[in-house]
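Why Lipoprotein? Reviewers of the renewal asked for a concrete example.
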Amino acid sequence: MKNFLGFIAILVSNSIFACGFYPFGEEIRYSFLNPSNFNYYSYSEFNYSYNTFYPNENGVYPKGSIDENEKLWIKYCHDKVSVEAIRSVLYDFKEQDINEKASNEMLQYLYKTKNIEAINYLKFAKTCEFFNGIYEDPWERREGATMPKRQNLIDKAIAVSNKTKDNEIKLRYTFLAIRLAYYNYDFEKIKLLYDTVFKTQKKKDILNYWSLYFRTFAETDKALANFYEAQVFVKAPDKRFMISQSFNSKIPLEEVLKYATTNEERANVYFLSGIKKSDQALFCLEQIYRYNPKFEGLSFLLLREINKIEDWVFTPYYSLFNPAISKFNDWDQVKSNSIQDILNRVENDRTYAHKVFQFVKNVNLKKINDPILWKIGKSYLSFITRNNQNCLNEIATLEKKITKKDSLYNQIQIIKALALTANQEKGKAVILEEVKPILLKNQKHKKFLFAIGRELEYKQNFTDAAFLYSKLDGAAAEYGDHYEYNIAVWKNKKSKSSYRDFYSDYFDYIDASYTPEQVINMVEEVESKSKNLDSFSKWKKSYVKNQIPRLYDLIGTKYIRQNKLELAALYFAKLDSKKLASYTDCLWEKPNCTGTDKYNVNPFFVLKYTPTFIKQEKLFKLNKRSITEHLILYLKKASNPKEENRDYYYFLVANAYYNMTHKGNSWMMRRYYSSYIDDDPFEDEKEYNESNLAQKYYLLSLKNAKTHQFKALCLRMIGRCEKNKLEYQYPNNYENRIENYDNFLLSKNRYYQDLKSKYKDDYEILMSDCSSFEEYFKARR
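Here is what the prediction returned.
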């Protein structure tokens, strides 16, 4: 039943996320210290990752390497047999294949040397393979958990082991008995066999640690079980993933350590404890260094700790997301998700990074097994703690010791590029000449591109930052195993937590975050007439170069948001050239206003969800430029004291501004999507939701109106704008539930109250039926 319930849980989880994408885990984690550049493949299942609960599907031994069991067989055959022959017998042969006629090199050697005990062992091991597993009852009644046939094999293995003269074959039979006993749930047998045969061994090999693996599951003393698990974890790479799941981190370390008799065993306990920690593990690093500094696990744990610090510091610092993996078990400790709270935690984690740096700095490199890793770690921790110059000094030394063909060379170049960029003065930062070739070499590494861009943005070089963000659209989807989740997603500092509070596209980001002038700087740099552009500049500008029309439109749209109509019209006019993309390619354009669709109508004369009530004398093609130019024209006419139809033109202007809100038919004058996230970081967000400009001009139309019917219509429209404002200020959502919401809005709408008190006979007509608008508008004169 557990499996069935697990299936249901997964199904529900998938249903939750099926309706949309929200980045998490490895998709948001920032890491520039790539574990695959270092020689810790057998520990790769424990690389710091959101996916650490997955075993390594490719095994724990690098391709082409020889595992410990294979080494034992090679030694047993006196180096006369190839590993390929051994593998063939161990993994491919069946019991009947083991005979004198076999052409296999290992079998030929055993038969030639008349090693019948080894041959019989191999045959017996093959008969046991079927029983080395738990065959579950789907209802988990555990009936049939033990099998008589398996018990017979256990008894036979023990009996043969006792008679066997060859000590290694004797141990192999005992191991088979222990493994069969595990699957037969005979834990007492496991204890007896291990404690009497393997425990007293002075020189332990993989058979001992494989047997100890099963012995841990038979141990009822939790502290002792933890001790055994730590030893197996270090000595038996292929058992690490499973044994790590059993290690109980809640058991005090002092209780576990009392079973250790050597410094190596103590170091092993601290190592597995450190591997299991999702929070700070510096104490474990210090203790391993104290007890066994040459242990490769010490270097791996340092690598893992730096990868953790990267996540804690760089994931929030660059993307403004919380770290991909919480270092707290209690979610309440990280539930505060405001951007400022996230960045405050970053500074605390930089302080911890400095403590790790001090530890690394004081380590005697002659005592540890991988000094290059520690030197790189030292330089990188300097960068993390904002000691950029020290980082660069360390890298300068490393560059003399690492050849350019070594993958580690590119590793330190990535760190160097980040440090060089961050080391510049605010307001004067550029993409340095030394950084350019590093960017080109790593142009498919999206998070690296974004991080350099973000550093430039933080230094107020918005132009180059945007160019680098634009390159994310063209970068390939993959960048090596470490960058399997090679995407960059990020937030705006003004963002508030919601389901769509992030960006993955440069255009959407500069749309929300950049000023018109900052976008103009991008366009001007692309359009600057440089005769001899270097390869980097061509690469940097290549994507934006084809987006100039779209950026002209964006500049104009941003000026609309600022209500700078002349500047908006200037940039919309640049789109008329046939050399540039047409509106149908990347912009918005309406046909002549003859359509019936609610968006294919003229914003000056038609209101969304309202029957046509204003006659349009002259048709004109609708696009951003024409609407902006007509808005300028109508404003000029309305503001002219000599114009007898000022009320009319103010009304048309108000209609246009109303239609440019989210309630109107021309919201695309201000936005590229009709709705974004809640509380979008756009400068005109209030205007887009509250219709303040529309209300302003309806009021001016009212002020210039001549008849009571038209004044009543103006009040009706002013009240509609007020309703939009009240809905935005008092949302009827889960946080602010308001009973009788419509009545609440009506009671607060002073303009509807004015309409009711001043034009009592018209109130019911105008409020209940929009078709009456035509009659009231015609009564303007």
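The longest strand covers residues 589-590. This is the kind of structural detail the renewal will allow us to pursue systematically.
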